[in-house]
Amino acid sequence: MEKVAIYPGSFDPLTYGHIDIVERALEIFDKVILAIAINAEKRPLFSVRERLEMAKAIFKDMPNVIVDSFKGLLVDYVAKTNAKALLRGLRATSDFEYEFHMASMNRSLNPHLDTLFMMTSKDYFFVSSRTIKEVARLGGAVEGLVPDLVAQRLKKKFKIPIGKKDQIGWEV
Ligand code: PNS
Question: How far apart are CA 84 and CA 113, in angstroms?
């Protein structure tokens, strides 16, 4: 039987850290469904449509990666698939509490559903979508940490570079 894992997240935006998890998961699973959450409470930088489009382009040569989006409870989405496990990346112990709560809640909602954690590769343990957005917003380089397509889209979003005067923070 086909072994399917669901890798849920905001992916706002997708980083090489996420891609590394997907690639490694494919050594274990036959198929990985990258499920982009539509969360009305969050104000993402990229719309769901943009995130879907970028992820589909990035994984276009990997037929075992299905890019999808979901609304509502993750366990309800999982029930509509033949996935047996959820997949999440862990960067540091600081991720653990959030992940532990989420995995425990999901398991309480569906006792047959397990969450598997993969340690992020050492090259990406400091990479998060949040810090990527901050660096890009302030005009820093994110190349090598996110796919080129994402780096280009970030540049487009933050097209007004921060002025030198603003950076110094006082009148000179
Ligand atoms: O990348 P993120 O933002 O850490 O991903 C969090 C995500 C989307 C996996 C989580 O918020 C989620 O599963 N949301 C769907 C709503 C849900 O099922 N909540 C109950 C589980 S705590």
Answer: 6
Q: Cβ(10) to ligand 1 under 6 A?
A: yes
Sign of CA dihedral 89, 90, 96, 100: positive
Three-state DSSP state, 78: helix
pLDDT in tens, 37-85: 998 788 999 999 999 999 999 999 999 999 999 999 999 999 999 998 9
CA 73 to centroid of ligand 1, rounded, Å: 8
DSSP-derived 3-state class of residue 147: coil
User: Mind telling me the catalytic residues?
Assistant: 18, 42, 91, 129
The pTM is what?
Answer: 0.93
Angle of helix 148-157 relative to helix 48-58, nearest 10 degrees? 150
| CA-nearest residue, atom 1 of ligand 1 | 9
**Rounded to the nearest 5°, which phi and psi values hold at 157?**
-65, -40
Instruction: Identify any residues that bridge with 85 across adjacent strands, giving them in sequence order.
Output: 5, 114
